[in-house]
Amino acid sequence: MITDGFLFLGVLLAMAGVIVYVERRKQYALFRYVPGFVMLYLGAAALNTAGVFGDSESIETVGSGVQDALLPAMILLLLFRCDVRKIVRLGPKLLLTFAVTAVSIVIGFIVSYLIFQGLLDEGSWRGLAALSASWTGGSANMVAVQGILEAPENIFGHVLIVDTIVYSLWLLVMFSSVAFSDRFNRWTKADTSHLDVHAAADTEDEARPIDLASLMTLIAFSLFVSAIAWQIGGVLPEIGIVVTGTTWTILIVSVLGLIIGSTRLGKTAGSTEVATIMLYVIIGIIASGSDFSSIAEAPLYLLAGLVVVIVHGLIMAIYAKLTRTELFSIAVASTANIGGVASAPVVAGAFNRQLVPVGVLFALIGAFGGTFVGLLTGQILAVL
Known about the structure:
- This is Membrane protein.
- This protein is mainly α and about 375 residues long.
- The chain has a domain at about 80-100 and about 160-200 and about 210-270 and about 290-380.
- About 75% of the residues lie in helices and about 0% in strands.
- The protein contains 18 helices and no strands.
- Helix 1 (about 5-25) packs across helix 14, helix 6 (about 95-115) crosses helix 16 (about 325-340) and helix 16 (about 325-340) packs antiparallel against helix 17.
- It is globular.
- The N and C termini lie far apart (about 45 Å).
- About 45% of the residues are buried.
């Protein structure tokens, strides 16, 4: 059992290094369908489930500290050379997609509650309403709705387990969907020309050599900005339960990243590579907290949660087919709702780093609206 934080981080980095080497050098067919970061997610989650990662203060401190440091830095680098004007040209359809995603999740909770209502605990609707706030906003929204509706502690404990497990599984599905985006887009007959413009912009960096100066500039600057953003975010006033220090930090690096994108610094070679390294570390840390053995503690609530995401997935697939929407918008909108501000930009970056602002925007919209959506869901479930 690993209880030392430094060893824990070393194991994750070693796993990531091996996976990246095999993926880039060996060209195995498996990686055409399962990206390397998905393999890392599965491997780290499996080790944690098997008890390799112990429950120690050292691991928690190192893991959360590294993740807090790298997440803003990664978002900043992913926003380098991002043309905001092209994002604006994507039009109102992105907002429609996000709205449909939130509505589909609410419908999923209604369908799931109707199926399991007679089997769940009395007052289970209160816990499910809190869970719906989390899946359309974030953990802060979940706690807020739990406090407002006074969900019983035992039920709230069950939905916390469901939140962790189903979120982990859904995040895995979203990461894996990157490999099937072309096939999905052909099925929906989606027009991806606006995404191709951003992808073409990435190729401009290929001609620029990555040297020590560029790597040092990117690493030092991004981590410095991350540290400053956390300091500023920590002293800015919190507004309600949604606008917290973390929210301010993500907003700061996002705005700064967009500004830098129009400067010469934004064209520094290697931003993609450095951001990708950070992406692997963050995914490994997130996955190391996934423990699928807790599935036995709340099987009915877990099934109810799975029904929610299945209904959500079906509705979004139908929506994509009818409106000819590409998989990127669907996946990022879904992750922004179910995952939140920490995972939506990561999934967006996995598809196309030029579109990270869409993930940030979606997640922030969800953070503001999740509480109200959760209360609305609770009101609907209460009268069923």
